[in-house]
Design brief:
By secondary structure, the protein is mostly helical. The protein is 74% helix and 0% strand. It starts with a helix and ends in a 31-residue tail after the last helix.
Length: 193
């Protein structure tokens, strides 16, 4: 209390003086130590509040992560099922292609065998036809030669009957002999009327 104020109030001072001990002003080290002691006593409370805040945030993050994982799990399951179906479809297509390729191979093999057989038959027929043509050619040549020979004989006979000189004979029908041809004996055939 302020002494001036007491006098202004009209009071008097007591006869006894009470003395109190006033501590000396703390040093800068004591001040820093006091502040540090106060901060140190507040740190556990701040840590506890911080840990509670982090725990609440972690809990909400965990719940969100759990929800996201649950939906991802379903999505992954759907994706795995789709991939499994696609793999089965690819396997079915591969089997179908393999079967079709085998059928095409069998068809080509059958067609090849048929073509070889047809070519072989055609070659046999061509050989047979060539032999027939050769035989026909030989026979035709023989007939022509026989016909020409008969024609020569007839001409020679007619020439002998007419007594034509040898110089007027056809040179292609002459044979290279100098002696006159023999005269054939002709007989009349009776007519069958």
């Amino acid at each position: 209390m302020d002494i001036v104020w007491l006098f202004a109030q009209g009071r008097t001072l007591p006869d006894t003086v009470v003395m109190r001990m006033v501590p000396p002003d703390p040093s800068w080290f004591q001040q820093i130590t006091g502040v540090a002691s106060g901060i140190t006593s507040l740190v556990p409370y701040a840590l506890a509040i911080g840990l509670i805040y982090v725990a609440v945030k972690l809990r909400s993050s965990f719940d969100e992560t759990k929800t996201a994982l649950t939906s991802s799990k379903q999505d992954l399951k759907d994706l795995a099922d789709a991939a499994n179906r696609m793999a089965q479809d690819v396997a079915a297509v591969a089997e179908m292609v393999r079967t079709d390729v085998a059928k095409v191979h069998d068809t080509v093999d059958y067609t090849n065998r048929r073509a070889r057989h047809a070519v072989s038959n055609l070659a046999d027929r061509i050989d047979s036809f060539t032999a027939t043509v050769e035989a026909v050619q030989t026979e035709t040549q023989d007939v022509i030669i026989s016909g020409l020979s008969a024609l020569r004989g007839v001409r020679a006979g007619v020439a002998a009957l007419r007594k034509k000189p040898a110089s007027r004979r056809h040179p292609a029908l002459d044979d290279d002999r100098d002696d006159p041809p023999a005269r054939p004996r002709l007989r009349r055939r009776p007519r069958a009327d």
